[in-house]
Amino acid sequence: MRLPNSSTASSLCSTSSDSAKTGGTLLGAAGFSWQDYPMSYILRTIVTAASFWVALWLLPGMQLTSDTGAPDTGESIIALLIISVVFGLINGVVRPIVSFLSLPITCLTLGLFTLVINAAMLSLTVWATSFLPVYVTIDNFFWTTILAALIIAVVSTLVNRLISTVAPTH
């Protein structure tokens, strides 16, 4: 039985130091690294949770409530993180289907119907997370939900742009 030489073995098994030499890429894909993906997901989840917090802070009709009364800080942080994960899943699975089906009305309104789609995804997230011990309540569907969706979108976009300008590129 013959063992492969060291150059063959090193080409078969790349390590993080090998990917650092190639500019942070693995598997030859330019600009893509599996090592960066979990951190990017965690960072986007934290940004979404922070944008939910800003919307809760600015809008009196949107509240974070608990089954046992007012949630403390730890419960609020965990609840916002869970809500942001659910919001990301709904935006990743349901929103593309709704956006495709509503493409004619979105074109007729010159894209303004996207605000209604964002509000519907937020409303679906509020409903889906209402079964948790700590959840978000919205008093009025239309204006509070539209404003909350707008605030979440603007804050998330601004913070993600800020992070992308500060984060080092490979």
Topology overview:
Layout: H1 6-12, H2 16-21, H3 36-58, E1 62-66, H4 73-101, H5 103-108, H6 113-128, E2 134-138, H7 142-166
Antiparallel strand pairs: 1-2
Helix pairs in contact: 3-4, 3-7, 4-6, 6-7
**From the helix content, strand content and strand pairing, which structural class follows?**
mainly alpha
Largest sheet: 2 strands, antiparallel
Helix count, DSSP H or I runs of 4 or more residues: 7
Task: Please give the order of strands in the largest beta sheet.
Answer: 1-2
Provide the gyration radius in Å: 21 Å
Mean pLDDT: 80
Query: Beta fraction of the residues?
Result: 5-15%
Q: How many β strands by DSSP?
A: 2
Cα-to-Cα separation, first versus last residue: 41 Å
Shape annotation: globular
Helix content percent band: 55-70%
Q: Low-confidence segments, ≥5 residues, pLDDT <50? A: 1-29
> Could you state the order of secondary-structure elements as H and E?
HHHEHHHEH
In short:
The chain has seven helices and two strands, in the order H-H-H-E-H-H-H-E-H.
Please give a handful of descriptors for the protein shown.
170 residues; mainly alpha; two-stranded antiparallel sheet; 7 helices; globular; disordered N terminus
